[in-house]
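Run log, item B.
One chain of 209 residues. Sequence copied directly from the ordering sheet:
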Amino acid sequence: MDNALVGGYQQPSPITTTLVRFDTPGGPICLTDGGFTQFDANEGNGPEIYYGNHPTYGRLSTISSIKDGAEAQTTRVDITILPASDVAAAALAAPSMQGVRVQWWEGVIHRQDGLLIGYPELKFDGEIDKPRFRVVTWTLTIECGTQAERQLEPNTDWRLNNAFHQRCWPGELGMINVDGVTRKEEWRSRPPDPGLFKRLLNTFIPFSR
């Protein structure tokens, strides 16, 4: 964490702020949880204005706590937005938004000039997965995941076999005569459950030796 940011948090009653940036094809959408501030995300656009009430897209409502990946799932977070209109809701939930990069920072605002103290701490860097819209509360919840989640998707190219091995290392024949690789096993997938019988058998093998 930035030293200046640490000092900002140590102030009496610090003014904390949440910053969210969507790197959409039409340009970045920058939101904060109140007022407005400037921040340079080092994406080549220089300082950008983060709106508490974006004139086109609306307001940032809440961000869920980070959900740790369990078993075959990676880290995820839900970002809830109050859309400014039905047009804004449709734009934020459009199919083209899937895969858009999402970044979330937490920082501290200077009381006198309204600028950030130091460099905010990056909490999440991932991409949009899918939206959920609730008409009753007029909220749009955007489910986000990390790019590592793509590696958990079944892919016929990622196989433990000679063809894929040579695709990565042409001419390397280390797997050409290896047997036992006919069954397709996805990279980073959970191993199949060996079953109760095999577990019991593995338990008693030391005694049989």
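Observations after the first pass:
- Residues 64 and 148 are 20 Å apart (CA to CA).
- The chain has four helices and nine strands.
Flagged for discussion on Thursday.
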